[in-house]
Amino acid sequence: MPVRTIDRQSVRSWRPRSGGRLVAPDGSTLSLKHDTSPLDEPWFTECRIRYSATPQAGEFGGRAFETGPVGTVDGHVAVLLEGSYIAEYEAQGGTFLLAATADRATGLVAWQGRWHEAYCWVNEPGATHVQMLSKFDRLTFVDTPAGLRVELPSGETYQRITANKHVPDIGFLQIVQAATAAAALPAWSGHRVRVGEVWRQLSDAKDASPTTVLVCASPTAVVSLQPRGGTEDAGLGFLTGLSTVSWT
Question: What is the reported pTM?
């Protein structure tokens, strides 16, 4: 099967369906409202799942996957994986897509619905189709225009969901629920804005060149803005223009 390319028209037609609203994979709803920005760039999520281990189950640890609009996986296969699709399987009202590098050292497995895709990397050289599909074992996909819900089997829970969105001329937003990020917030008061408080921090010290991150906390969500493509002043102006930051 030849490598497909990202269908940019598909992404553009999807944007108006959600704007600043996202139904996250766990069924919760993230809402952003801004005075001037339409927030029409696509939403992406990174999901970490925890196994609720018991002596009988013998399962410890967890798994992870990401979600994005239809067309995301095409780009990953062509650009990041530099591979090709090797199989397709129809299931759950959508399609499981399997891709791999030419030497089968690395792969990618995805489920594609009408509007969204869920995907994860397969770092098992020579993985069979069954092994690749097992990354999504017992997950149930429910695709909607507002977001892709992924229902977990008994014994698994969502540990953390990170929502990502690009804002042109401003930068990149990363948003998590407040309950998962409260411990990482500064103990001192930040700059007051309508939705909460803002702090200026540096990115992870492990980065070769730490960059500025503007952190905005509301009662239910924490927004981290990396002002790439824009200035710090523009980023602060954007956060000041937010009238709603809610994840419930």
Answer: 0.89
